[in-house]
Write a structure and sequence with these properties.
51% of the residues lie in helices and 18% in strands. The chain is α+β, with helices and mostly antiparallel strands. The protein has two domains: 198 residues, Hypothetical Protein Pfu-838710-001 (Beta Barrel), CATH 2.40.320; 249 residues, CHAD domain.
């Protein structure tokens, strides 16, 4: 482990399983420790925006000032702890200079460069039960934290389990966490106490939506290195949005972005392997469950113009409201033991020992896959109007995979070539997405009686919109087919 870096996995513990887990943890070697922490930030939330946390924590009789910096969004964060000589329950004075000379301290200095003074925003009151275990040669500290986060009059409960890696093979941490997750129904949650506290202090009903970021890739990477970087980037996109759904405080865009992340992840695994039927089936099942959760949001958004038209025509607004109730399948699937198994298997893929094939150049695998996928999609897109609905849906999926692979492989192609491809591919994919939303709306409308005047109004609106969308899809597909295939960047 690099000095100044903590590596841990955090899980939400269903309260019904707390007593059973506590019995397993409370052996003679376990330690109980009361923790009280004051978390600081500037009034404009600079530390939270920089994914940093600054706190003073009382651990039994002693005080510690801790600074945590931005990590990989999964299990690794910068950390610097400084003991503070102080007696009594009253908190000592915060001093950001205590972290000078560390990576996290330099990042903090940049955030506070204009002299802004952090102030207390929220407080945590935790009872911790911890014990050090060994698994496959690794030493892991397992902690059960129970208590509350408080910000003024508002508070939220805490009931979570942390697995912190202390040394040895990292796989031991993942194996132990997977074993306990299955046994006690643990749900992986990358949201920190600081992030939960900041949302609470700000009065936000839901955490921020996390969007995709480009993985750190270069053309000279080996296949295993490129795969690990792509999986890390897609998990950093997926897991915070999954945590919002599990916590029950999510927006429609959390569901959408989680599904986008899973599509990107499935694209990378399909292109670069390794093959794993059980993993891919679990990803597919989770994606389908989230699709049922998203259908109500899609229907409401698709029919918004129809509602506006109905209002202009004098119809009552409730006449054209969708009949679809948000499905709980997505959050339920994320809380299931299979989800924790899946996330840990994917994290393990980032740290797995490289196989023989992983040493070959990344470009040697990516380029032929991209050509093959592009050729299939171009063949299917020759004439949009002649395709039936299943073929159109298959084309839409092929183009999504092609776009994500093209974005991953951007370091391999000249920038102009990539921009030309995306300039034609992105609007085509957007139009196909709208076409799919119209299909979802037409399917939902079939459940309403044919004699329903509102159903007749919606059917007419959808028919007109579908006619326009068909023409736009055909034009966008023809424009994309005219763009030349990307060529490798010359060295």
């Amino acid at each position: 482990m690099t000095q100044g870096v903590e590596i841990e996995l955090k899980f939400q513990l269903p309260p019904a399983n707390r007593a059973r887990l506590e019995r397993a943890l409370a052996t003679r070697s376990a330690e109980r420790l009361p923790l009280r922490a004051l978390y600081f930030d500037t009034p404009d939330g600079r530390l939270a925006a920089a994914r940093m946390a600054l706190r003073l924590r009382q651990e039994g009789p002693r005080w510690v000032q801790t600074l945590k910096g931005r990590g990989d969004g999964l299990m690794q964060r910068l950390e610097d702890e400084v003991p503070v000589a102080h007696q009594g329950n009253d908190a000592p004075v915060l001093d950001p200079d205590r972290h000078d000379g560390t990576h996290a301290g330099r990042a903090l200095a940049r955030v506070l460069a204009d002299g802004a003074a952090p102030e207390v925003l929220y407080v945590t009151e935790i009872q911790r039960l911890r014990r050090v275990l060994r698994c496959e040669g690794a030493r892991v500290e397992v902690s059960l934290d129970v208590g509350r986060i408080r910000a003024g009059a508002r508070s939220v409960p805490v009931c979570e389990v942390e697995f912190e890696w202390l040394g040895g093979p990292l796989q031991g941490l993942l194996t132990l966490a997977a074993r306990w997750a299955r046994r006690y129904g643990l749900v992986l949650d990358v949201t920190t106490k600081a992030e939960r506290g900041h949302c609470l202090a700000a009065g936000d009903p839901a955490p921020p939506v996390v969007r995709a970021e480009k993985p750190a890739l270069s053309a000279d990477l080996a296949l295993g290195e490129a795969r690990a970087a792509i999986v890390a980037a897609t998990l950093a996109h997926a897991l915070p949005n999954a945590a919002a759904l599990v916590g029950g405080r999510h927006l429609p865009d959390h569901v959408h972005q989680l599904r986008v992340a899973l599509r990107r992840l499935r694209t990378a695994l399909r292109a670069f392997g390794p093959e794993d039927v059980e993993r891919d089936q679990a990803l597919s099942a989770l994606f389908e469950a989230l699709g049922r959760t998203r259908d109500a949001d899609v229907l409401a958004q698709t029919l918004a113009p129809a509602r506006a038209a109905a209002a202009a025509a004098g119809w009552a607004p409730e006449v054209v409201e969708p009949d679809v109730v948000p499905d709980a399948a997505g959050p339920a699937a994320l809380r299931a033991p299979a989800a924790a198994d899946l996330w840990l298997k994917l994290i393990g893929l980032m740290h797995a020992q490289p196989s023989h094939d992983d040493g070959r150049p990344w470009a040697a695998t990516a380029e032929p896959v991209l050509r093959r996928w592009r050729r299939r999609a171009r063949h299917l897109a020759r004439d949009w109007r002649t395709l039936d609905d299943p073929s159109r849906h298959r084309l839409r999926k092929q183009l999504k995979r092609l776009r994500y692979l093209l974005e991953f492989c951007a370091p391999l192609w000249p920038g102009k070539s990539t921009r030309q491809q995306l300039a034609a591919l992105v609007p085509l994919q957007d139009m196909l997405g709208h076409w799919n939303d119209l299909v979802v709306a037409r399917t939902a409308l079939q459940a309403r009686p044919a004699s329903d005047p509102a159903a007749a109004f919606l059917s007419g609106w959808l028919a007109r919109e579908s006619q326009w969308c068909d023409q736009a899809c055909a034009a966008a597909a023809a424009a994309w087919r005219q763009v030349k295939a990307p060529r490798r960047r010359r060295r």
